[in-house]
Specification:
With 233 residues, this protein is an alpha/beta fold. The protein has one domain: 3-Layer(aba) Sandwich (Rossmann fold), CATH 3.40.50. It is built from 11 helices and 5 strands; from the N terminus they run ααααααβααβαβαβαβ. α10 packs across α11. It starts with a helix and ends with a strand. It holds the Pfam family CMS1.
Length: 233
């Protein structure tokens, strides 16, 4: 009987360590990069944005207020089915772009607004829209290495057709009356793209909040009025 006791004590310790190791592994699986790595890419659809807004505002808004934040399907452009390049997607949703570009004469505004998660991603999208944009003027609307006063001055002095940038800087420009959205016809969210950590723009808390703030501040109203169409690329 006594000879068995050390054996029993010896076996109990590794079992506890093994259980701890299993629990640690389970915790690691909760990281968003691990979850997304195992999930198949799925194209974003209008319902995804609607659900996101409902979840964000659901607890703090009345039924009437939530109703005012709803967007009908007519507010949306066709969503990217993950087969498009950025240029081919823009060509599909804006078949009359040449005419729109030619008729746009207003300063402090853009016809198309593209929202993404970072300055680097903005530059990538600007390069990848070459086949679509033609000779139109594109303005970088992000904070990295560019002061907001510089962007306001450029918008006041020139005519730009497309603005590409981050939601925080775009929101700041609108708030400071540097950018007017009355001439904007299209707003494209870089919805499906994933960064090195496999996060989409709406998986990054700060970018998600700034995007929702921008939508609530003016875009949802313009969409409901019919002057702006939303696209999920």
């Amino acid at each position: 009987m006594c000879a068995l006791q050390p054996t029993e004590c010896f076996l109990s310790q590794p079992e506890e360590k093994q259980e701890t190791t299993v629990k640690a592994k389970r915790r690691k699986k909760k990281k968003i990069s691990d979850i997304l790595e195992k999930s198949a890419p799925k194209a974003g659809v209008p319902a995804d944005l609607q659900n996101l807004l409902s979840q964000h505002f659901g607890e703090n808004r009345s039924v009437i207020e939530l109703e005012e934040l709803k967007l009908s399907d007519t507010c949306f452009l066709p969503a990217n089915d993950l087969t498009h390049s950025f240029s081919s997607y823009l060509k599909e949703i804006c078949p009359k772009w040449a005419k729109l570009r030619k008729n746009h004469k207003e300063k402090k505004s853009v016809v198309m607004l593209v929202i993404c998660s970072s300055a680097l991603r903005s530059l990538e999208l600007i390069k990848s829209m070459t086949a679509f944009k033609g000779d139109c003027k594109v303005l970088k609307l992000f904070a990295k290495h560019i002061k907001i006063k510089e962007q306001i001055n450029m918008l006041e002095k020139g005519v730009f057709h497309i603005g590409v940038g981050t939601p925080g800087r775009v929101k700041a420009l609108v708030e400071q009356d540097g950018l007017c959205l009355n001439s904007t016809k299209y707003m494209i969210l870089d919805w499906n793209w994933r960064d090195q950590k496999l996060r989409r723009m709406m998986d990054i808390p700060e970018i998600k909040k700034e995007t929702i703030d921008l939508l609530e501040m003016c875009i949802i109203k313009l969409c409901r009025e019919g002057s702006v169409k939303l696209g999920l690329f």
